[in-house]
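A reminder from the course coordinator: this example appears on the midterm review sheet, so study it carefully.

Given structure:
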């Protein structure tokens, strides 16, 4: 499946991504003692996912432009 890096939708290429995201959220929610701590934990966990998807989009775009 070819992804569109310019689409605004959340697309990781995995059908079970919602389940994974929800499991991460529940784990963090159980460990956090304050809302601020929960937000910080979630930002840390999801920044990895966001940066991975961004890297994949950039690589795909460079390949399409025949720069790789």
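Designed residues:
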């Amino acid at each position: 499946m070819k992804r569109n890096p310019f689409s605004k939708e959340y697309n990781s290429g995995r059908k079970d991504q919602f389940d994974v995201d929800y499991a991460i959220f529940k784990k963090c929610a159980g460990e956090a003692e304050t809302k601020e701590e929960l937000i910080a934990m979630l930002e840390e966990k999801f920044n990895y996912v966001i940066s991975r998807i961004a890297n994949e989009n950039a690589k795909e775009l460079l390949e399409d432009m025949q720069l790789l």
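Residues 35-64 form the longest helix (30 residues). The mean pLDDT is 79.
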